[in-house]
């Protein structure tokens, strides 16, 4: 197993490299880079250059254009624009910029945000716990609810219980996550009805001064609605997957033999069927986590004002903050690849008969 894990870890390097190449290439064709963002801000709001550069602007004539094609618009000096390009590293060819970026990444140097005056590593380290917390809680709750529900539906297949629970989870699956999140806010967070839960954030003011129990309860109070909103659509897939897996196993000969020996239903289900049926369900744990981590983090974090990685990446994309964009992409890709390895380890944990050592890749 050790050799297999080592091979998978080594495969992370070319995979991440491919992800970064594709996204870096796409970014080169997206209009409105960071220089254009600054020019638009200057033209729209006057002199807002504090913290960006020490140079002044306004020495040139209206409509002046730099050698790289950036339009000065309202009297911006081409020298000033060239100075911005040099400061952001955009004066170099794309290939050179990409190679320099990957060399820095190899040394775990993610650079500094263009507009926040803080290192990308510090930004990601600050925001990542929020997104991971949201993803882990949502995935765990989805599994805690879906597995027993799926088993019960398999045992009582075709009964009214199976019918109405299937209808309920399909309806939940069909509701868009952002719409359900807004509905929760309106109903329970000071909208038109009840004011039970807080509107935004993960902690209250003065959280540092709370007792340990106070911190725990305050945190759970804040995280309740975001978790429900991000989990609601996960129940359908996991529940039906669990049900179908158990039904496939229940109809096999070894289950009939166990029942014929007089074993109780619970012992047959959890002592014999569970291990075989859970293989595909457990294998889906990383995919479920990544689905919530990638798909729900942005929407939920924006709606509930959670300062996480999804929101950070969104704001960086809007501002064309390239170091932050590529830093968050790198982290998302790395987390996804590591979760794939964890999925294989869980396979072996559930069923030791599985041997990945015999695989070539």
Give the arrangement of secondary structure elements.
Layout: H1 2-28, H2 34-45, H3 78-88, H4 94-106, H5 120-155, H6 160-174, H7 177-188, H8 212-231, H9 234-250, H10 253-260, H11 265-283, H12 285-303, H13 309-319, H14 322-350
The overall average pLDDT, rounded, is 77
Integer-rounded radius of gyration: 26 Å
How many beta-strand segments? 0
Question: Portion of residues in helices?
Answer: 55-70%
Total count of helical runs of at least 4 residues: 14
Distance between the termini: 12 Å
Low-confidence stretches: 46-74
Helix and strand sequence: HHHHHHHHHHHHHH
- What's the main sheet like? none
Shape: globular
Structural class: mainly alpha
Strand content: under 5%
Structural features:
361 residues, 69% helix, mainly alpha, single chain
